[in-house]
Amino acid sequence: MNIKYAITHIDEKGLRRLTFANQGRNHYDTAAIAEANLKVFKSNNNLESILKYPETLDVRAVECYDHGDAKGIYVDLNQTDLTFLYKNNQEIYNNLRTSLNNELF
Prior knowledge:
Layout: E1 2-10, E2 16-18, E3 27-28, H1 31-43, H2 47-50, E4 58-64, E5 74-75, H3 79-88, H4 90-104
Antiparallel strand pairs: 1-2, 1-3, 1-4, 2-5
Helix pairs in contact: 3-4
C-alpha cells in the first residue's frame, strides 16, 4: 500500500475530499511537507471565496497508486468532521447519519 498525504476539505455536500486535482504532484511523501504546503495555500488565498467550509482544510493520509495519484477523491470523515457538521450544518449531518444507518442496518 502506497500512502501519501494530501490537503483535503469538507465540501458543500458534507464529504471530505481532495482540495486539489487528483494528481501525484498534489500528494506528498510526508505529512510535514503537506502541512507546509497547506500553510502556503492558506496565506496566499482568500479561502472564503473558494471553499464553503475553509476552516475544515486539513492534511489527511490517502492511499495512492504507484504513479502517485490517489485511489479516490473522497477521504473518510472522522469524529472531528462529524462534530463540525453537527454544529454547522444539521441538514448535511442528518443526511449522512441516515445514509450510514441505511448501510449498517
